[in-house]
Amino acid sequence: MHIPDGFLSSPASIGAAVVSVGSLAAAVRKKMADGELEQQIPKMAVLSAFIFAAQMINFPVAGGTSGHLLGGALAAILLGWPTAMLVMTTVVLIQCLGFYDGGVWVLGANLLNMAVLAPLVGYGVYRVINSWSGGRVESLAIILAGWLSVLTAAFAATVEISLFSNTVPFNLAFPAMMFWHFFIGIGEGLISMAVVSFVRRTGADSLEIPAQGSEAK
What we know:
This protein is mainly alpha-helical. It has one domain: Arp2/3 complex 21 kDa subunit ARPC3. It is 72% helix and 2% strand. It contains seven helices and two strands, in the order H-H-E-E-H-H-H-H-H. A two-stranded antiparallel ribbon has the order 1-2. The radius of gyration is 16 Å and the shape is globular. It starts with 9 loop residues before the first helix and ends in a 15-residue tail after the last helix.
C-alpha cells in the first residue's frame, strides 16, 4: 500500500498532499471543538502502537507498492473518524520517516490513502450498516468496514500510480492491487472484528468504544 518515491507525478503528489492536509486539519478542528483531543491521547497512543506493529508485516504487490493490514477502519470504529485520521497519520509518518516505508515526496498520497480515505470509508460503512440494523449485525458491519476500507485505499493508490502518473499501466496495476487486497481486506475485517470484540469483552479502559448499536463521534 505504501507508494515509494518516484512513482507519482508532481501534480499527483501535490494534489494528494493538499487534500490530506485539508482533511487532517478538519479532523483536528473537530476534535478541538469537541474538547476531546487531550483525553484521547493515551488511547491514540495504544492504538497507534498496535496498528504500527501490524503494518510492519508487508509484502510486495505490484508496481513497487506493498500489501499489508491498514487499521484505519478499526481505529475509526474504536475512536471515531477524526481521531482515527490522527492515529493513522502518526503511524504512516513514523513508518515513512523512521523506516522509509513509503516515500517522503509522496507522503501526501500515502496519507490520503491510508490516513484519510481508509478511516472515512470504514467508519461510513460501519455506521450505515450498524444504524440500519440497529446493531444486530455489528460483526458483519465491522468486517465489511475493514474490507472496503482496504479496497478503497488500494484503488486510490492504483489510480494515483497509473491514471494520474502513468508509472504503471492501469490494466496491470488494477488487477494486481485489487486481487491481493481483496484477500488482505478480508483479513483486515476479521482482525478488526476480533479486536473490537476483545475490547468489549475485557472492558479495556484504554480503548473505550460505544455500546453496541451506537456510534462513535
